[in-house]
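ASSEMBLY PREDICTION REQUEST
Request ID: AP-0331
Submitted by: J.K., bench scientist
Number of chains: two
Total residues: 365
Priority: normal
Notes: Please return the full assembly, not individual chains.
Input sequences:
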Amino acid sequence: MPEDSDWEAYKVPPTRTPVSERTTSVPNPATFFQTVFNYVVDAPVTFVREWIERQQAKNKFYYYHQKFRRVPDLSECLEGDYLCFFEAEAQWRRDRMVDQEIVEIVRERLGACKQREGPNQFQNCAKEVELLAQVTKAYQDRYGDLGVHGNARTCLMKQKHRMMEERKAQANASQ
Amino acid sequence: MAAMSLLLRAAAAWGARRAASGAAGGVRLPWLAGAARLPGTVAPVRHSSGHGKKMFIIKATSFYDTRFLNLLRFYIFLTGIPVALFITYVNIFIGEAELAEIPEGYVPEYWEYYKHPISRWIARYFLDPPEKHYEKQMALLDIEAKKTELRLTELEARRLMRHRGDGPWYHYETPDKNLVDNSMKSTPDN
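STATUS: Completed
Returned structure:
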């Protein structure tokens, strides 16, 4: 699962808890536990992690996301041109994987929104719900019901049938 | 002391009775009974010195089991520990790659698309670039496509030559027409 690069979608809005006036002289036990945690767990772990990062910063190297060139689509291939079929098929599979990841990311954003909002999710997450509905409908229209043996050719045939249905619906509507 | 030995003797006798009845009575559900059991059969022995009554516990041998488990642990750790140490060293001191945008005009090598340094090393020195694999697949497809094309044209040529009879194939030896005896057909009334 690739990480979502847009962290803005996951940021929790700042809390609006009001600062309360102290009415007792008993100290807050939570601060004691916080300092204990800080010294026992947080400080050593941070120290070790920063030491490790100093070691790793000495020789940095990078990795990239591969960009594939666009090749002619299956609809632009001539009959019997098996090489063109092969390249179009590979491109279609890559595009399908990209679309699957897009749907996954939109789903994760909706889940994050629900977790963030809590009881307000039904009002505040409406945009994400709408986006997920659109994205899944689009994915289902394009790739759904092709089955495990679906390939670029069956997808093209499905698109052809969709266009025929659309044309028929338009013809019926204009009558 | 005496009560202790009596208690142990009674426990030994009880254990012996239970073991005997267990062997004779078939499978029961010992776990549900929840009673604490001494392993195997116990038989009291004399010549006990100091405290308590010594028991000679008769049970099935665990020599082979412990030997197997020891050997298993030894052989797993023999290579497991160096590999684990090496991977820890790589993860701490070399670290994983960072994601970056491809710089302008730079074509990354095929191993620079992996994150972990060991995957990069394996891809660099042992695996073929995926472009090579792709091109090999396309070359195979091309050869097979040309073969099908040739075979289809051969079938078509054969069909046409058989049908038209004007090609180099499908010539059959026939006897010379001067050898044919036409005397049977020479008169109309035969």
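REVIEWER COMMENTS: The first strand of chain B starts at residue 41 and ends at 44.
SIGN-OFF: pending second reviewer
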